[in-house]
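queue> holo job accepted (beta-D-glucopyranose)
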Amino acid sequence: MRLERLRTLHRVDPLGIDQPPEFSWNIAAVAANTRQATYQVTVRDGTRTVWDSGIVPSRKQSFVEYEGPPMTARTAYQWSVQVEDNHGAVATASACFETALLDDDWAGRWVQSTIPRPAPGADWGHGTQPPAVQFVRAFRLRAPVRRARLYATALGAYRPLLNGARLDDRELAPEFSVYRSRLYYQTYDVTGLLCAGANELSLYVGDGWYFCPATRPLAADEPRTVPAILYELDVRYADGSSEIIASDGTEICRTGPVRSSDLFWGERYDATVPFGEPHPVEVVDLGYTHLVAQPIDPIRPVELLPARRVYTTIDGDTIVDFGQIVAGRARAWIDAPAGTEVIFDHFETTTADGGYFNGTYAGQRDVYVSDGSPQLYEPLFTFHGFRYLRVSGLPVVRTEGFTAVLLTTPKERTGHFECSDPALTRLHQNVLWSQRNNMMSIPTDCPTREKAGFTGDIQIYTPAAFANEDLTAFLTAWLANLAAEQARHGTVPMTVPFTPPYERLTLTMSAQHGTHGVAGIAGWSDAAVLVPWEMYRATGNTVVLRESWASMSAWGDSVLATARNERGGLPEDLDRHLWNTGFHFGEWLIPSQRQRGGDFEICAESAAYVAPFFGYRSVRLLADIAELLGYPDERARYAAHATAMRDAIHQVFMSDVELPTQLMGAYVLAFAFDLVPAERWQPYAERLVALIEANGGLLDTGFLATPFLLDVLVRIGRADLAVALLWERRQPSWLYQVDMGATAIWENWDAVAPDGTPGTSSLDHYAFGCVDDWICREVAGIRAAIPGYEHTIIAPRTEIGLSWCNRSLLTEFGLLSVRWTQEELEVVIPCNTTATVYWRGERYSIGSGTHLF
Ligand code: BGC
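queue> job finished
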């Protein structure tokens, strides 16, 4: 028996944390049926033991929370875990972490540029942002260095250099967050980059999210108008002494080759422009209390994709095709005479005849002006969503000269799927691509047009996301941002962070729908409850439930208050229990509705059930979560409200054998949220099936109902129909996209017409990728019977039309895998867990190990 996969706060040996840690480990054993009998965690700060859990008789091996005294800042800690299993075997393993600055004890002062620049525009931008600013500090060190850390952050996106060398390969620090209350700072190990004598530190600051018109902080947060930096270099010398070199106003600042950088419009890099005249900096007080040690692994280049081919269109454009939609940047080998302007236009898909097509209002254009020397160019402060690149101005365009760089927050891959059907296998890969392409710092809707943290999209997608990657640290950080927005607005906005375009949209829609200010949106704002809940279901994480309790209950209370206070035109005794006012997106993107009109005008019909149903769902879950957390009063309070809400829904929506709306999603959500009264079960089930049949056997659901569609069909005894929808190849369907050559998940079922003509939808939106979770549970047959997979049901659907299927899932306990053919089933169950297997009409109870049936 041995221990592996040790994680601290669900990260590997994190450097620079400011949270009390939680610890996790996996057990690997040769012996079958291995369980953890006891564990003991000890934490040391070099020599001293600062915490010893003692021997704990428990099977817990994830989210084991540190319970020692408060940690010391800037300190390296080692932790060890010793486990004894049920067979008497003992194993030990160790990992480490290091704290950052814990008490806002910054020695550095904020310094800002004095180079004049226009205030950021109010709209989506136009591609002519001001030049990036480099801050430079020269300093001397008196002796050789034993250990050095740099803590730094900026307003803007910065790239630091020490003595001309990059500190690591992270990109776009300090990343995207609710800057007003959660500006991340970064911790770097720079021991090897310093020398005794003269040194130079520089931070090159582009616009990043902070100054980008579409992503900058809300006006009410008084966003600054010029780039600023803060840093502190903590040097420990070989002789035991130490020194701090901190930002203090002795820096200079200057502009250089990055003439303009914008997240949507791209970057202009002029290699003929050297760094210019030094300007003084100005010391300003921007405060420290909003600084947070970056709680997630940094954005990095995670995968490189060499170009597949270069071709010329009938319009004479030169196009580079990477064969895959990716979020990030293109790296290009440029060899052109001095002064040549080389233009790179990034786009997701071509016109039907292979031509350039930009379906988004984001320009996605990078420009490089050559100084005559051959260069490998990659922009510094922007990123795009693209599969293709139109290249203009480069004398020779060679396939070998281009690489697409995937930029994303690295996360541990937890899921693999492959089966005998190439289209279904490709669908899974497309899901994974959209996931990776949309998880740069925060979960986004798309990497092109909006790059926004839509609460609804991630709410829908969280279960599928966990079937592919470990998102614990990533979503925990995002939920802290959500709580920060909520604290400001009293409700959960449609995007987190909440930025000017969405504030404007919310206020406009609120005004049109008789509400005031920032109001909640059903199925979007509910992310406050649904995301932590799904995180718990995927991993057994109760820490996130506890830490999110204030935020989720505040959200639930705001739904209850809206229901109580806003009149929706029904008799008072019903009205007060229904969330039935305000603007909602409804199900969003229901195919049949889209044909009827503008996106916002058609929301109302499905909003009529989406709001009360989701309101009920959140409040009902709050009762369950309160029960789990041991809050009996809260449990009773939410349960009583939930019952009243359900009764009101029954009276208003379910007094007849049909729902008032004949949209599939209404039935789907009613079943999914356990809202269907017993006497309506049969007629509603028949009605849902009839609606699908009347629609030619095609689905007609939008964002909010699609995640439940196939499950509901299984539940009402029509698994055959669920399977048919999965295999459907006409539009709208998942495999239609695959047949049309999709390499990621489309925003809209009709994003590309059958003749290959693209529309303006994004081709890289993970929401409809939610089906990947169903495939894992129903096709591979892996279902968590207890949240976190402490007990798993294995029930493959071998009649689905595949000859074989392999699915693995790296659970909190370790690797779980299912491989089935028509002849046999091989199951790997992680240590410390059990499973019930259904195979060929038999039922088997098994423990950990590899089992062949
Ligand atoms: C985004 C979404 C989002 C929606 C809400 C769209 O523009 O791309 O995915 O959830 O707006 O209306």
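queue> The first helix runs from residue 208 to 211.
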